[in-house]
Design brief:
Layout: E1 4-5, H1 15-20, H2 31-48, E2 54-58, H3 61-70, E3 78-83, H4 86-97, E4 101-106, H5 115-124, E5 128-134, E6 136-137, E7 142-143, H6 146-156, E8 161-165, E9 184-188, E10 199-204, H7 206-212, H8 224-231, H9 242-258, H10 260-279, E11 296-300, H11 307-318, E12 320-321, E13 323-324, E14 333-337, H12 344-360
Parallel strand pairs: 1-12, 3-4, 3-5, 5-8, 8-9
Antiparallel strand pairs: 2-10, 6-7, 9-10, 11-14, 13-14
Helix pairs in contact: 2-9, 3-4, 5-6, 10-12, 11-12
Length: about 375
Amino acid sequence: MTQNLRIPGPTACPEDTLEELSRQMINHRGPEFADMQKRIMELLKDFFRTENDVFIYTSSGTSVMEASIVNTLSPGDHVLGVTIGEFGDRFIDIANAYGAEVTRLEFEPGTAANPKAVADALAKDPAIKAVLVTHNETSTGVTNDVEAIGKAIRAVNPEILYIVDAISSLGCLPFHTDAWGVDVATTCSQKGFMIPPGLAFITLSERAWKAYETLKMPKFYFDVKKYKTYSDRGQPPFTPAVSLYYGLDKALNMIKDEGFEQVNARHAHIGEYTRSKARGLGLEMLAKGPEASNTVTSIRMPEGINAAEVLKILNSEYDTVLAAGQGKLMGKIVRIGHMGIVDESDIDAAIDALEKALDRLGYKKPAPVGA
């Protein structure tokens, strides 16, 4: 029996991309690699909806979050960190680690950031140079309105840097870097791109490049200027994960052939389908309304049932892997990932297994209304 991996990354990979990973190595300083990198970087610009270059790091998603800080800010810079969960917290932690002066704007788990609250926080400190926002918070299953937050930021100060973690959204949900006024956007390979972990992507606006010229943050591997200099030669600055480039080349073309709007619509459908199936068990969603994520659904566990016990049963007896809650939500929720390659049958199997695990722990699905 194949394991039903339903976590918000790494996601399951289609056979077509997995097959590409086994190809023989090529010279990453040679013409074949240069052709592939050029093709990939042009496709990534389409995915980011940007006219600016997109650079590829051989590293995790957190690396480009760090790169977005060290390539735009200096120690002592005032920063507004908007957080709706664990990954918003991580963004703040990274900025703090490099000596930025971060004002924390936190929202309740399961809710989205309020654009007016962001504007109000900026108005209180005219020295704020950058705003950090997570587009899609996988720890809570909430999607922030990046476009509305961007408009709120620009209404206060058009020169503030708008830095967005789009790691679990880009390639699945609508994202328009340039049109939404995003200065730095980041994502990585093991989410909507349907390949294994190991590649991360970043793009910078002209405003961000201008900030780069005056910053004082230490950096070496994450120095985006190195990536720009080498990309002009058709090379990466350091040894790349060549196999992952093969898979990425294939995956980007698969998604483009399906159509960006169709991919977004497919994720919207599977997100609502997952929530509907979970509600059918009488379970409550952590995130409700339009902010509910279409790449991961967070489900509250019934009173008296610990999520860890549910996950243990699912994994050991039903070959179904869901994700645990994080931080304050540990033991209180389970999370179902539905990004990349996923269809209704995958969700049906996961929800059926969840129902059986809950039944084992004493939970009974409520009878239908009117029954």
